[in-house]
Amino acid sequence: MNDKYLTVTALTKYIKRKFDTDPHLQIIWLRGEISNFKHHSRGHMYLTIKDEYSQVRAVMFAGNNRYLKFVPENGMRVLIKGKIGVYEPQGQYQLYIQQMQPDGIGALYLAFEQLKEKLHKLGYFEESIKKQLPKYPKHIGVITSPTGAAVRDIITTIKRRYPIVETTVIPVLVQGQAAADSIKRAIEYANKLAAFDVLIVGRGGGSIEELWSFNEEIVAQAIFHSEIPIISAVGHETDVTISDYIADLRAPTPTGAAELAVPSQVELMDKIQGFKRSLTKIMTQNITQAETHLNRMKRAYAFRYPEQLVVQKEQELDKLVERVEKGFNQVTADKQRSLRVIEQRLLNQHPRELLEQMKKELKQITKQQRNAMKQIVERKSVTFANMIDKLSLLNPLETMKRGYAIPYAANGQIIRSIAAVDSNEDISVQLADGLLDCRIIEKYRSRKLDTGQGTNMKEEHDGDDI
């Protein structure tokens, strides 16, 4: 099979990876009309988003649609935030919806989402930086409208639950164009006074336009930079603002904020009574145990017969002193033995002793070296004599002493055959005791003949008389 052909699965996976890694497809803001809506029994929503020219399939999983404040219907125009992905089994792209709002408040909703995304990236929503509320505050600041129902609910709840706390209302505008700046300045003023343990910032319920001042960036920054812990109490439980995300604690309602800000005196009294009962029980048990221990001590032998006890303890003291002395003497003896061993080791390691030891070792090594050299010389002498004998056997002079001679031609070459010389040619013959100059008169070719009584040379002419 040719490797250039892909499977459908491989192609689909490749396209899906392209979709998943494209940053422009990870956050999509979309306006369109719902059609083919189906709410599955498992909670997921399947639908098509369309306009007059195109459509795209979409899904909103149960984990996202549970927060919807409305029920989607066919024909409804909506504003959507989501991402584009590929559904591999069918090889089609679709929109995965994360948030959805009815169209009509689209501009505010879009602004809300954009600011939320911006502040989230800046780390304004991190749980790790949120401040802990004090358990028993002494002074609470309430930043809200002084004429709304929210301030009455907050003050009434605080006085009912924890009347010893001081409460101060810092009046602000809670809706309108100047509201955001008014809330910001109130938070900064409260931090400048440094007189409050907790701030409650909020208002009663209303439309998204009425609550919009709590979605402004300047208010978000003021809450984020506040050194005093802030409880956000804006609208009803279903209303969510930017202030709720940034505040150190979000309350579902202004009344809920008051309940979160202070403990309940009823609960505290119950807890105190519980502590009192526990303390009384523990003290009673301790007294009973102490009395039992005291009575046992009174009946003890030491208090009944103190003189006998003293005598007994003195005898035990004598034994202990004797054991201590014996142990001390034993330890002293052990230490002295160790000291002598160490002293002997030090003496053995003295430079003078080491020097003597080294001299003995050097003398021994020198003696061994001389013996080794003597053995080597003897072996080499024997080898040398053997080699001399061998050379003597091979020496031509020794051979000539036995009656042999070596003939040399005029050019100094040894004559090994009669063919190497001619008649009347001068030659030299080397004898053991000198050199003969000779001339070839005649040459014969000879061979050995066995006569039965030794070896004789029979001369033959090689064809011509020379």
Descriptive notes:
The protein has 13 helices and 15 strands. By secondary structure, the protein is an alpha/beta fold. Among the domains are: 8-104, OB fold (Dihydrolipoamide Acetyltransferase, E2P), CATH 2.40.50; 136-263, Rossmann fold; 401-460, no CATH class. Strands 1-2-3-5-4 form a 5-stranded mixed beta barrel. A 5-stranded parallel sheet has the order 7-6-8-9-10, with helices on both faces. Strands 11-12-13 form a 3-stranded antiparallel sheet. A hairpin with a 4-residue loop joins strand 4 (77-87) and strand 5. Helix 4 runs parallel beside helix 8 and helix 5 runs parallel beside helix 6. The chain is flat, with a radius of gyration of 61 Å. 16% of the residues are buried.
